[in-house]
Write a structure and sequence with these properties.
Length: about 170
């Protein structure tokens, strides 16, 4: 959500074309302020381990709504584009080979604090550091094959959702 303020009005852009304008000093309400979208992926190892349902159930049980969903098979180039921020790092080549090694499931999640909530449910990148009960702690093989992805911030989420989904593939219900 983008918020612009001048002396009199606050204007909030909520998602694509919905605007709310209220006098300055008046809140939009907690709910609108913290409603977010994020991108998650059940990575090729998660799909191979039959964990698609488990991951989605974990998200749905924790108040996240799946508003976009598809199975894809990333090419090496698509994986490199998706993980462009990691280009040059020691794990980049291996990571992009892994991410293009088989089908994965990409989804758009919506909910209050969706970005941080998704990451809490996933757990730390390295499963040995991940908290008990998190998806990665329970199911990851190692720091690379950690079964699930979640965007790490609002700008990243916007880029990552747009990378795999167009407007017609995201639903309101
Ligand atoms: O996925 P997350 O945001 O937790 O971690 P990241 O630092 O953005 O790294 C992206 C992905 O690269 C991880 O999820 C791992 O699959 C992989 N990675 C790796 O193989 N070795 C590392 N030392 C760090 C990350
Ligand atoms: Mg990341």
């Amino acid at each position: 959500m983008t918020i612009k303020e001048d002396k009199i009005f606050r204007c909030a852009k909520i998602y694509d074309a919905q605007y709310i304008i209220v006098p300055r000093g008046v809140s939009y309400g907690v709910k609108e302020e913290i409603m977010e979208r994020t991108l998650s992926i059940v990575k090729p190892d998660g799909v191979a381990k039959n964990l698609i349902g488990e991951v989605i159930k974990r998200f749905e049980d924790n108040g996240l709504k799946v508003i976009g969903l598809k199975m894809i098979s990333m090419s090496k180039k698509e994986a490199e584009g998706f993980y462009a921020v990691h280009r040059g790092k020691s794990f980049f080549e291996s990571l992009t080979i892994f991410m293009s090694s088989g089908p994965s499931v990409v989804m758009v999640l919506e909910g209050e604090r969706a970005i941080s909530k998704t990451r809490e449910l996933m757990g730390a990148t390295d499963p040995d550091q991940a908290k008990k009960g998190t998806l990665r702690r329970q199911f990851a093989t190692n720091i690379e094959r950690n079964i699930v992805h979640g965007s790490d911030g609002p700008e990243t989420a916007a880029f990552e959702i747009g990378y795999f989904f167009n407007a017609l593939e995201i639903f309101k219900y």
